[in-house]
Amino acid sequence: MADDKQRARPTLKEKYTTAELREYASWRKDQELAALRRVLEHDRRSGNVTEAHKDYRNPLGIEIRTELVIQLSWGGDGDGYKLLFDRSGDVLSGLYFWEDWFVYEEVPLSRAELDSVCAAYGTDGMLEV
């Protein structure tokens, strides 16, 4: 069951660790999903979508994005690129990833690096819009 005790955001402190951020994000996810399950259970009991459901956390936006993964190697020591495109096929962001047994790291690409990767692998023609 989700921990209902309120927690302070780690970012309110002057210094915080990645582990604190991850723990807080995990706690927030658990809180959100517990609330969502309560709304869905209420809908199930009433037999339809209720006003509580319609009013529950209306999203600020819903976006469709496409992730293109360029896998350069795999196995015990793999790497590649992940590129994120918007619905019209424009590249939004990208990262280089490296993986080994039981570890995984991502490094964001600068705009110039992203442009180089897109040019090198000819991503313009890869996505159907």
Explain what you see.
There is one protein chain. This protein is of the alpha+beta class and 129 residues long. It has 2 domains: 16-55, no CATH class; 66-124, no CATH class. Helix content is 35%, strand content 25%. It is built from 3 helices and 4 strands. The chain has helices at residues 18-46, 51-55, 111-121; strands at residues 66-73, 78-85, 91-100, 103-108. Strands 1-2-3-4 form a 4-stranded antiparallel β-sheet, covered by helices on one side. The longest helix is centred in the first third of the chain and has 29 residues, at 18-46. The chain is extended, with a radius of gyration of 20 Å. The N and C termini lie far apart (42 Å).
Question: Which regions contain 5 or more consecutive residues with pLDDT less than 50?
Answer: none
Class by SSE composition: alpha+beta
SS summary, helix count: 3
Shape: extended
- The whole-angstrom Rg is 20 Å
Strand content: 15-25%
Order of helices and strands: HHEEEEH
Helix-residue proportion: 25-40%
Q: Describe the biggest sheet?
A: 4 strands, antiparallel
Compute the number of strand runs.
4
* Total of domains: 2
Spatial separation of the terminal alpha carbons: 42 Å
Summarize model confidence as the mean pLDDT.
Answer: 87
Main β-sheet, spatial strand arrangement? 1-2-3-4
